[in-house]
Design brief:
Blueprint: H1 2-20, E1 29-32, E2 36-39, E3 42-45, E4 50-53, E5 59-62, E6 67-70, E7 75-76, E8 81-84, E9 87-90, E10 95-96, E11 101-103
Parallel strand pairs: 1-4, 2-5, 3-6, 4-7, 5-8, 6-9, 7-10, 8-11
Length: 125
Amino acid sequence: MRAKIVRLLAMVRPWIAFSRAGVKAPRATSVGRPPILKIKGDVKIGARAHFRTVQLRPRIAVDRGATLTLGDDVFLNEGATIWASESVTIGDRVLMGNLSTIYDTNAHEVRPGEGVPHGSCRDRG
């Protein structure tokens, strides 16, 4: 009985979190709490995404006008972070390890005095 309750919670928690953020996440599950979501743009999550959040919750941020696409069977481990400033696409069956980070923006100066460049990372070659 306890195992059934744990499996049910693993499905319900992320569904509630993503639903509150206006995101459909078909059959998403999590061990522990659901990821931290800051969604202002468009998010598409494939089937069976899984989030491991026992100690450090993954963070997903999507800026206004940006797009984040996660494929089927994607796994985000403890503390993984995705920040889509314009567009981030992660394919099917991708596993992100502890504390891994994916940003599509340069949110800080690289060389002193240059300032923070704006626009897509692709535009900067």
